[in-house]
Amino acid sequence: MPTIGLFIPCYVDQLFPKVGLATLDLLESLGQTVEFPAAQTCCGQPMANTGCVNDARPLARRFLEIFQPYDYVVAPSGSCVAMVRHHYEELLHGEPGFEELKAKTFELCEFLTDVLKIEKLPGRFPHRVGLHQSCHGLRELRLGSCSEVMGPQFSKVKQVLQMIEGIEFVPLTRPDECCGFGGTFAVSEEAVSCLMGEDRVADHEQAGAEVLTANDMSCLMHLDGIIRRQKKPIRVLHVAEILSGSAT
After folding, report:
1. What range does the domain containing 23 cover?
2. Looking at the predicted structure, is the pLDDT value of residue 210 above 90?
3. Who has greater pLDDT, 49 or 97?
4. Distance of alpha carbon 123 from alpha carbon 53, whole angstroms
5. What distance lies between CA 91 and its chain's CA centroid?
6. Does residue 49 lie within any of the structural domains?
7. 235 lies in some domain
8. 200 and 94 inside one domain
9. Are 174 and 77 in a shared domain?
10. Other Cβ atoms closer than 10 A to 95
11. Which of 55, 67, 187, 209 could form a disulfide with 130 if both were Cys (CB 3.0 to 4.6 A apart)?
């Protein structure tokens, strides 16, 4: 049986541990052997995004060292997986095992559709749900189709969520627009970031969403902050929480 190395992003580990536990529960319920290497650290994305490449390189090497023994690496985060698959090239090019690491690292929903190829899931979630599709997931991992691109429309995240009985997706006006978080962008360009987030929340609200979900907790953290400050009647849940049955 292949063994999965569960990669939990640092902000999920520190602020949203329920998402990590939901991911573990989901994978184990599907018969997977999962290990959580306790030595794991940040993937280095915050440093790389702000141009501190030399500070990110030791973290990338540590990531490679820790996760190299596993058959797969799975994370409930499109942005962190995109860091490994697309941006470690600058940090780890030529390092032994790097190409294998890229090929076996997957975002959670991508792993369910492309590797496990699941066709059904148990559980029931009778709520009106707005799906936020994160930029990293769409434009780097190709987890879904972008509205500006001609061709068949698809979403791997929605494909998995549709397996849950009772879920109803609300129609958004801008289904693939950025939430405005962008990591340190939310700090350096706070006003723009907040306005973009308010636009996304308003879109979900006008569509009648009871629950706003996504496969990136960073986006949800940003949107949830806006929702709570504005006292909107919308609940925020990570996709893993819905899929694992830990959300009701």
Report:
1. 3-115
2. yes
3. 97
4. 43
5. 22
6. yes
7. yes
8. no
9. no
10. 15
11. 209
- Cα→Cα distances 43→65, 67, 138, 200, Å: 12, 11, 20, 27
Question: Residue 63 carries which side chain, given as an amino acid letter?
Answer: F
pLDDT averaged over every residue in the chain: 93
Torsion of CA 13, 17, 21, 23, to 10 degrees: -70
Based on the number of CB atoms within 10 Å of its own CB, is 225 exposed (0-12), middle (13-18) or buried (19 or more)?
A: middle
pLDDT-derived band at 213 (thresholds 50, 70, 90) equals: very high
Mean pLDDT of all residues in 45-52:
85
Q: 123 lies in a domain? A: no
From edge to edge, which strands make up the β-sheet containing 72-75? Answer: 33-35, 3-6, 72-75, 105-107
CB 104 within 8 A of CB 115: no
Q: How confident is the model at residue 201 (pLDDT cuts 50, 70, 90)?
A: very high
Considering its fold, how many domains does the chain have in total? Answer: 2
* Per-residue exposure over 129-161, b if at least 16 CB sit within 10 Å of its own CB, e if not: bbbbbbbbbbbbbebbbeeeeeeeeebbbbbbb
Say if residue 118 is exposed, middle or buried (CB neighbours under 10 Å; 0-12, 13-18, 19+).
Answer: middle
Q: Which of 68, 83, 115 is the last residue of a domain?
A: 115
Q: What pTM does this model have?
A: 0.93
d(CA 232, CA 112): 32
